[in-house]
Amino acid sequence: MAGGIGSRFWPMSRNYYPKQFHDVLGMGKTMLQQTAERYATICPDENIYVVTNRDYYALVKKQLPMLSDEQILLEPVGRNTAPCVAYAAAKIYSRNPNANLIVAPSDHVILKEEEFRNVIRRGLEATAAKDILMTLGIRPSRPDTGYGYIQFNDGVGDLRKVKTFTEKPHLELAKKFIESGEFVWNSGIFLWSAKSVLAAIEKLLPELHEIFEEGKDKWYTEDEKAFINSAYAQCKNISIDYGIMEKSENVYVMLSEFGWSDLGTWKSLYDISDKDSKGNVLDGNIMIYDTTNSIVKTTSKDKLIVVHGLDNFIIAESDDVIMICPKDEEQRVKDFVADAKAAKDKRFM
Amino acid sequence: MAGGIGSRFWPMSRNYYPKQFHDVLGMGKTMLQQTAERYATICPDENIYVVTNRDYYALVKKQLPMLSDEQILLEPVGRNTAPCVAYAAAKIYSRNPNANLIVAPSDHVILKEEEFRNVIRRGLEATAAKDILMTLGIRPSRPDTGYGYIQFNDGVGDLRKVKTFTEKPHLELAKKFIESGEFVWNSGIFLWSAKSVLAAIEKLLPELHEIFEEGKDKWYTEDEKAFINSAYAQCKNISIDYGIMEKSENVYVMLSEFGWSDLGTWKSLYDISDKDSKGNVLDGNIMIYDTTNSIVKTTSKDKLIVVHGLDNFIIAESDDVIMICPKDEEQRVKDFVADAKAAKDKRFM
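ok -> structure tokens follow
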């Protein structure tokens, strides 16, 4: 899944160039490329499919030249994850009714790749054998209020039946979740067979099922694009979590720990990055004075940023936008984007 | 005088594009153009001479197209104000031995233009009649530690003999100066006859006198440029204040009040600019949140700056440099420039 616009990462992530197409961590590869490389150790390249907005077709082609056009699924408009999953599952099912799917965002960091592959291998064995819907759960390290939490049943082993989903709890609640030991973070990485997820969609999102059922003789043909454009016009905006996971009976979570971050926000980038002796994360031509616990990042090699006298700030520069914001108030970034959209013209989005 | 590089105004003022060539106040005209217009109400255009570094010839020509090349005096290297004054005075004297001169920086703000013209008119009457060296003194409104202070003698009227010069006093001393009522700020605007200043240079800076005496048959000829290039190689770096004004007997100050600012620093720009209800000075595409008493300025119309949660800061963006600095620590700007020069390459100077 590579269709998001990453607005919490503005101004680095922009409508015309979202986060997953950036080398956010300064590793010489974009998030999308790192994600594709990760799955290339799990399945052949020809089994990797990217679902994205059609505006990003050229970016995907450029960054993942090994993909054929058949493997790049273009949404005419973003409708959240349920239509995205329905589209990909239906298309892949038409070629291989026994396909097992991993559905993953393209902008996550996974530090322990080998452990991740172990988790995936065991997960796919389970989804191939049983009619279950699986999400990967991350053992929480702090009461983060930005994640979804999954409560799992008592039992043995890492694969547990899901009891409840809670999206972005308040801090007090998050603390209680952690203390109870019964909760993991929802990574948003899903494993299931094409058959199982399509059955769940048919049962719980029958309208969505009908829309994509119409396409069953269009997949991998010249007509796919036109069909999808009209199909998406009928799709409601709904997440796979809300539409399926929170309502199905056969939902399981794999308790995992593979150095995961969704890299959803500036603070998460700060947390995962190497820091200097004063707790600063610096990326670019940066000069700092009396500055601590801050992240200063420019996407341009041709710019100099001089920062004096700040503690716990985000200073981010990208293209034509400079943002200065306290790190603990990064939730305001969404306001900035909305206000810029309202007050100025769209070039800054 | 338009040869300075305005390093206290970095990053807006740059080696390749100093402050006087910018529309610092956002008035649609650069500081140099505003200065030229001010004097064009006092003398004919052909009597306006600009002394600048030869690197800025093209900028001066573009901004003041009414000036002939004879009126643009190009220094091969900056040597402070004494050589600049000696050059211009000698050249103008060769054409008109009775010339009265106003020597003025090109980057000052003068709000009360009519009062300024009154002061100049009365000043020129005095310098035409008597062999005196005059500086314009500004009645101080606060104990500013960034200015030079002039103590004047008892007497009547606005034209007073100078008792002492004190450059940039400590705060306590500045407060005492103000309380005494015997001090004014030194504006750095000088009035004198060409004859008087040349006589003072001959007496107090004999080496400088000799250097420019050699040029007396070169002014307004093709040889002037080559002569000046070799003359400046021999000049010491010395200010007209230190070399002449502090040592002459016939130095007077005109006590004045015409809404003056030397606009030397970010804080002085902040002080003189209109503020919003939260005490912010904003110039450019700026969005602010919970930000007070700050100055945010970008020289580009194509950039957006978003600032959240700052009080009493300077945020300045120009070309390829972004600077964030507490307003009360703007003296550090010189360090930033020096450090950038040492650590990075010269493109950021």
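The mean pLDDT of chain A is 94.
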